[in-house]
């Protein structure tokens, strides 16, 4: 196992259990104490975990979110499974909004070129993935100031988005629970809330690293969302509660037998 994948798994362990120890990680991954300590030091320096004597614990700040390119590598296989399920929800003739978060970027790679879709996005990278397919897709990039993650933001973005109406909107969040979805920053929160009014069908794509995780900003109640696509890492008891709130819950599985 390479170091990137090992660190991603350590992040998932910390988020799931709240803490990890150096000894446990050495046994789990069959590497030296120096290797594990280096992993924890790197994750601490990035603000993902907080090192302790003999291990690390979860950071609880509600205003902090992992940097975009680190999030891109986290839980990538599950994001791909979620994106594959989300693609199946798109129908010929749909007008679609795709946000620029990491799962949206994965989704853009999997949308078939021969699908007759009109897609609007706030991500230059999503737009580039789509236009390179040279198929039937019509792609619109909404304007604004561009951040280091390739996403547009600001007043111009909001003015342009208000001109559109969508059949479906696909977006993500910082965290979700049975009460609703959460964000650490205003920009994605405002976009998600705009989509409530401007889209007929909201599709939340949220992998299990976001389950039972809250943030500084409350986005919306789950009953505003028509479809939630997550993965089997989301706790089973939470899934049962979600089924009572979300109209359509899709849980992707590693054996390709998704729950619906």
From TrEMBL:
<dbReference type="InterPro" id="IPR014036">
    <property type="entry name" value="DeoR-like_C"/>
</dbReference>
<keyword id="KW-0238">DNA-binding</keyword>
<protein>
    <submittedName>
        <fullName>DeoR/GlpR family DNA-binding transcription regulator</fullName>
    </submittedName>
</protein>
<dbReference type="InterPro" id="IPR037171">
    <property type="entry name" value="NagB/RpiA_transferase-like"/>
</dbReference>
<dbReference type="Pfam" id="PF00455">
    <property type="entry name" value="DeoRC"/>
</dbReference>
<feature type="domain" description="HTH deoR-type">
    <location>
        <begin position="3"/>
        <end position="58"/>
    </location>
</feature>
<dbReference type="InterPro" id="IPR036390">
    <property type="entry name" value="WH_DNA-bd_sf"/>
</dbReference>
<dbReference type="InterPro" id="IPR050313">
    <property type="entry name" value="Carb_Metab_HTH_regulators"/>
</dbReference>
<dbReference type="Pfam" id="PF08220">
    <property type="entry name" value="HTH_DeoR"/>
</dbReference>
<dbReference type="InterPro" id="IPR001034">
    <property type="entry name" value="DeoR_HTH"/>
</dbReference>
<keyword id="KW-0805">Transcription regulation</keyword>
<dbReference type="GO" id="GO:0003677">
    <property type="term" value="F:DNA binding"/>
</dbReference>
<dbReference type="InterPro" id="IPR018356">
    <property type="entry name" value="Tscrpt_reg_HTH_DeoR_CS"/>
</dbReference>
<keyword id="KW-0804">Transcription</keyword>
């Amino acid at each position: 196992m390479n170091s990137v994948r090992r660190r991603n798994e350590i992040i998932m362990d910390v988020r799931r259990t709240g803490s990890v120890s150096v000894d446990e990680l050495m046994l789990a991954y069959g590497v030296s104490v120096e290797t594990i300590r280096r992993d924890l030091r790197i994750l601490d320096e990035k603000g993902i975990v907080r090192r302790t004597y003999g291990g690390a614990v979860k950071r609880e700040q509600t205003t902090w979110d992992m940097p975009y390119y680190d999030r891109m590598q986290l839980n990538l296989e599950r994001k791909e499974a979620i994106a594959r399920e989300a693609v199946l929800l798109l129908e010929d003739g749909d007008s679609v909004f795709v946000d620029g978060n990491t799962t949206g970027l994965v989704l853009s790679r999997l949308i078939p070129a021969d699908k007759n879709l009109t897609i609007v996005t706030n991500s230059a990278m999503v737009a580039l993935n789509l236009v390179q397919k040279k198929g039937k897709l019509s792609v619109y990039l909404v304007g604004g100031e561009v951040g280091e993650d390739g996403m547009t933001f600001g007043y111009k973005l909001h003015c342009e988005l208000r001109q559109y109406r969508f059949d479906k909107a696909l977006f993500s969040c910082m965290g979700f629970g049975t009460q609703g979805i959460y964000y650490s920053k205003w920009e994605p929160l405002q976009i998600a809330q705009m989509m409530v009014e401007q889209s007929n069908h909201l599709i939340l794509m949220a992998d299990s690293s976001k389950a039972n995780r809250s943030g500084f900003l409350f986005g919306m109640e789950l009953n505003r969302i028509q479809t939630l696509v997550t993965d089997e890492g989301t706790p089973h008891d939470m899934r049962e509660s979600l089924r009572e709130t979300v109209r359509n819950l899709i849980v992707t599985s590693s054996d390709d037998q998704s729950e619906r």
